[in-house]
Each structure stands twice: as structure tokens, then as C-alpha cells.
């Protein structure tokens, strides 16, 4: 089947919303070629690493499923992503059985942990979810306000074991695991979502801490998310999600062949003074396939801008088509 540039431009966008009330924006997006959304959390929930009392009081499995089914009537193979992190944010809190705590997970055998993750993912599939933006494979051995309360430890081997079990368990239930945030952000002085910040760690240290990414790839993770800030050891100018050097490392040295998902392109450390459209173009050109952006009425303009960039050669039409094809192949697995 042949797709237009406009359809490809929408296929590579993962719009994020903090509400289930998304039909007004999403239906036109899906009708023109979009095929993904992230059902996320509010900033307050993100900071608290927990869903709000107000959300827990009103959100039911039936309400959640009905909201997605309305979109599925337009796009039957819709990718529905959530943050469902072992030890971090769990967007499905209150409507799906919880993942084990980190302390509990550390005491489980691999087989028991895989099964606990599978049960959580099976419940998510019943809610029409298809993708977890997890596990977090970053090994934090310094400060990191962005990932505080979300990571799985400071020992690479321990985190690697948990990440591999998580990937194996959730994917056995039909959920795509998106291992994040490559190449690993062990020490950041600020939150990339709030300030323009860079990772200053040495290349050797970053690679030593990368064992969880290698373990997740060996376990078959279908997707990897790149990080939202520059990694000076590889590319001092561009954030990992817009860096050909970082994405090339993932493809070549780490041998990853699957779907590459950007982190939030709206983050100051990713934008670095550019417009969202310029940043999206840079991310596609660098090799990312699915671009995470805030959802809203601007989606049509953003996607039309991406298509126009491909039309005049600012993006290779072949690169855009390759990215869109990887996304559509993920939808076909549902």
C-alpha cells in the first residue's frame, strides 16, 4: 500500500494527553493517517509519581476502555501508550493490578517477576493499551531530579535483570516495551523538561552503565526511547532524541533494529531554542521513528510542516517513509 507524505507525517507522531477527553483532536488526526497516542498524566501526577485522588475517584476501566474504543472505530490498529514503570509512574494505577514494588521485585526470581509483569500487561491489554513507555533502564549514580523516584537502582547488573524481566513479561502479553532513556542519564543537575541541561559524564562511564539497555535488547524489546538532553560525550549540540550520533550508536554498536521513539520533543533541553517543527525535522533526520509531542490543536500544522519539509528535501521522503513503516509494523502486531 502506498501512503502520502501527509499520512507518513502523521504516522510518526505520538501525541500525549493528560486526559481521556481527546476525541476532538485525535479523530481528525487519525482520519488523516495518525495511528498512535500516549494517555499520560498531569504535571502534578508526574511530579508526585502517582495518579491524583481526583482521577482515582472517577476513572474506571470501563471509562478508560470506552475512550479508546471510540478512537479505535477510526483506527482499529491504534497504538495506545502509557507510562507504566516498575518503581516509577504507573498511569494504570487504580484500574489494573499494580506492578510489584522495587523492593518486592528485587526479591522475586526472574520467573516470578516475569509473571507479575505479564499479569499487569494482560490487564492493560484488556483496557486496549498496546505499549508501555517502560522500563526505565537509566542507572542513576549521581543526582537526577528528572528521574528521582522512577529508576530501578544504581547497580547496572541489578537494573539489567529487572529490565530484561520486565520486557519479557509485558511483551509475552502482547504489550510493546519501550526501554528508556538511551544512552542512560546517570547524573543531571536539572530536569530537561524544565531547563536546557546536558549530560556531562564520560563516554566510558555511560557505556559501563548501559548494561540494562543491552539486556533489554537481548530480551527482545521492540522499542527504545532516546533521551531528552544532549550527551556531551557523543554530541554536545543535539539532545539524544535529535542526535544522529546517539541514534547511530544505538543502531550500530548496540545492534538495535526495532522502533526508536523520541522523548518529549517539547522539552527545553531538546528544543534548544528551535521551534517544535524544526526539532521534529531534526529528530526524523537523526533516525528516530516515532516522535513524542504534546497533543493539541497544533498537531495538524505540525504534521503538515513535516510533510512540506519532505516535499522540498529538508527530510528525505525515504527516511520519513521508513520511520512511518516501522510504526505501522508495530500496529500490525496488536
UniProtKB/TrEMBL annotation:
<keyword id="KW-0378">Hydrolase</keyword>
<dbReference type="GO" id="GO:0004553">
    <property type="term" value="F:hydrolase activity, hydrolyzing O-glycosyl compounds"/>
</dbReference>
<dbReference type="GO" id="GO:0009254">
    <property type="term" value="P:peptidoglycan turnover"/>
</dbReference>
<dbReference type="GO" id="GO:0005975">
    <property type="term" value="P:carbohydrate metabolic process"/>
</dbReference>
<dbReference type="InterPro" id="IPR017853">
    <property type="entry name" value="GH"/>
</dbReference>
<keyword id="KW-0326">Glycosidase</keyword>
<dbReference type="InterPro" id="IPR036962">
    <property type="entry name" value="Glyco_hydro_3_N_sf"/>
</dbReference>
<feature type="domain" description="Glycoside hydrolase family 3 N-terminal">
    <location>
        <begin position="77"/>
        <end position="329"/>
    </location>
</feature>
<protein>
    <submittedName>
        <fullName>Beta-hexosaminidase</fullName>
    </submittedName>
</protein>
<comment type="similarity">
    <text>Belongs to the glycosyl hydrolase 3 family.</text>
</comment>
<dbReference type="Pfam" id="PF00933">
    <property type="entry name" value="Glyco_hydro_3"/>
</dbReference>
<dbReference type="InterPro" id="IPR050226">
    <property type="entry name" value="NagZ_Beta-hexosaminidase"/>
</dbReference>
<dbReference type="InterPro" id="IPR001764">
    <property type="entry name" value="Glyco_hydro_3_N"/>
</dbReference>
